[in-house]
C-alpha cells in the first residue's frame, strides 16, 4: 500500500458512480481527491466544474459505468472534455467496471457492438489511457487505439478463500467461457476445476445441463467476472449440491446484482458470495451472505506505476 505520495502533477478525481472507492484509492496513494462538482440542470443536463488548476497535470478520473449506466457514461465524457479544455497533460480513466462490455460482438443480424462504441466515445472525447479491471471479454482491449492497463481480480478473491483454509476444494467455472479464470484461481489454491455445462435459451435465462468434473464431498467455489441477475450462479449452486458438493461458495469481480439477484442469492445453496467494490453495494444490496473486498490497493498501485512509468504487469503475479 502506497502512502504519502507527494507528486503534485498527479491528480485523482471522482465522479458520481463510486466516490467511496475513489476516496480509498486517493488515500492509498497518499493524496487528496481533486475538487470538482457534478450537478444537473432542471432538464437533466449534466454540468461539471473543476474547482482547481490541472494545467500540465496527469489526471486520473475514477468512474465505473455501473447503474445508472448512461448517466455515468455522460458524466465521464463531459469530465474528459472539461479536463482537455483545462490543459491537463494526460487524462487517464480509471474504470473498474466497463459497462456495455457484454455487447462485444454481433450475436445476431443488425445488432450493434456497443462495447466498441463506448471505446470510440472515450477516445473522441480526449482520454489518454484507460485502467480497467476484469473486462467481460479481454479482447475489448483491442477496441481502443490508446494504452489499456487491464487488471485482474483473481488474486484478491483467491487470497480471501486461501485464508479460509478449506479442505478438499474444487474451483468451478459456471460456463465454458470462464474456464481460464477458474484455472487461474485453481492454480493459486492448488485445487482441481470443474465446469458447469449449460445452455442459455434467451438472455438472462440459464438452464444447467451437467457438471464436468468431480465435486462430490468437496467445497465448491464458483468464480465469474459478473453476477447480474444471479440466474446462472444460483442454478449452478443447486446443481453442485445435487451432485454431492459439501458446501458452495461463489465469487465475482463485478456485483451488478440487478432485478431478482438478491432474492435468488438469499434463497440459494450459496453459503457466501464474495465480491469486490468495483460497483458499490447500497444498503439495499447489503445482505448477510455477501462479503465485499476492496480493489483500492490494487488500483492505487497501478496508478502510481503508470505515473512513474513502471511495469504494471508485475501486479498480476
TrEMBL record:
Belongs to the ribose-phosphate pyrophosphokinase family. Class I subfamily. Involved in the biosynthesis of the central metabolite phospho-alpha-D-ribosyl-1-pyrophosphate (PRPP) via the transfer of pyrophosphoryl group from ATP to 1-hydroxyl of ribose-5-phosphate (Rib-5-P). GO terms for cellular component: cytoplasm; ribose phosphate diphosphokinase complex. Pathway: Metabolic intermediate biosynthesis; 5-phospho-alpha-D-ribose 1-diphosphate biosynthesis; 5-phospho-alpha-D-ribose 1-diphosphate from D-ribose 5-phosphate (route I): step 1/1. Mg(2+) binds at residues 136, 175. Homohexamer. It comes from the Bacteria. It is found in: Cytoplasm. Keywords: ATP-binding, Cytoplasm, Kinase, Magnesium, Metal-binding, Nucleotide biosynthesis, Nucleotide-binding, Transferase. It is an enzyme of class 2 (transferase). InterPro entries: PRib_PP_synth_CS, Pribosyltran_N, PRTase-like, PRTase_dom, Rib-P_diPkinase, Rib-P_diPkinase_bac. Residues 10-126 form the Ribose-phosphate pyrophosphokinase N-terminal domain. ATP binds at residues 43-45, 102-103. One of its GO terms (biological process) is 5-phosphoribose 1-diphosphate biosynthetic process. It comes from Halobacillus andaensis. This is Ribose-phosphate pyrophosphokinase. The lineage of its organism: Bacteria, Bacillati, Bacillota, Bacilli, Bacillales. Binds 2 Mg(2+) ions per subunit.
Amino acid at each position: 500500500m502506497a502512502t504519502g505520495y507527494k507528486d503534485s502533477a498527479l491528480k485523482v478525481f471522482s465522479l458520481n458512480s463510486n466516490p467511496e472507492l475513489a476516496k480509498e484509492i486517493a488515500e492509498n496513494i497518499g493524496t487528496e481527491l481533486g475538487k470538482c462538482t457534478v450537478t444537473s440542470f432542471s432538464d437533466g443536463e449534466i454540468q461539471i466544474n473543476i474547482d482547481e488548476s490541472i494545467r500540465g497535470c496527469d489526471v486520473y478520473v475514477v468512474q465505473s459505468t455501473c447503474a445508472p449506466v448512461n448517466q455515468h457514461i455522460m458524466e465521464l465524457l463531459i469530465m474528459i472534455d472539461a479536463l482537455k479544455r483545462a490543459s491537463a497533460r494526460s487524462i487517464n480513466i480509471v474504470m473498474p467496471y466497463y459497462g456495455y462490455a457484454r455487447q462485444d460482438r454481433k450475436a445476431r443480424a443488425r445488432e450493434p457492438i456497443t462495447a466498441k462504441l463506448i471505446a470510440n466515445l472515450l477516445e473522441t472525447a480526449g482520454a489518454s489511457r484507460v485502467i480497467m479491471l476484469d473486462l467481460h471479454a479481454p479482447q475489448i482491449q483491442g477496441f481502443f487505439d490508446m494504452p489499456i492497463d487491464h487488471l485482474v481480480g483473481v488474486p484478491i478473491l483467491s487470497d480471501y478463500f486461501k485464508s479460509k483454509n478449506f479442505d478438499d476444494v474444487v474451483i468451478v467455472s459456471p460456463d465454458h467461457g470462464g474456464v481460464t479464470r477458474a484455472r487461474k484461481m485453481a492454480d493459486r489454491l492448488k485445487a482441481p476445476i470443474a465446469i458447469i455445462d449449460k445452455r442459455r435459451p434467451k438472455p438472462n435465462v440459464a438452464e444447467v445441463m451437467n457438471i464436468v468434473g468431480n465435486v462430490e464431498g468437496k467445497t465448491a467455489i464458483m468464480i465469474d467476472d459478473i453476477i447480474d441477475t444471479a440466474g446462472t450462479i444460483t442454478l449452478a449452486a443447486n446443481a453442485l449440491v445435487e451432485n454431492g458438493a459439501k458446501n458452495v461458495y461463489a465469487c465475482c469481480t463485478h456485483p451488478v446484482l440487478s432485478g431478482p439477484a438478491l432474492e435468488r442469492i438469499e434463497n440459494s445453496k450459496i453459503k457466501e458470495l464474495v465480491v469486490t467494490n468495483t460497483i458499490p453495494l447500497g444498503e439495499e444490496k447489503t445482505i448477510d451472505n455477501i462479503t465485499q473486498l476492496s480493489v483500492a490497493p490494487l488500483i492505487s498501485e497501478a496508478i502510481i506505476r503508470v505515473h512513474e512509468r513502471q511495469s504494471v504487469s508485475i501486479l498480476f503475479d
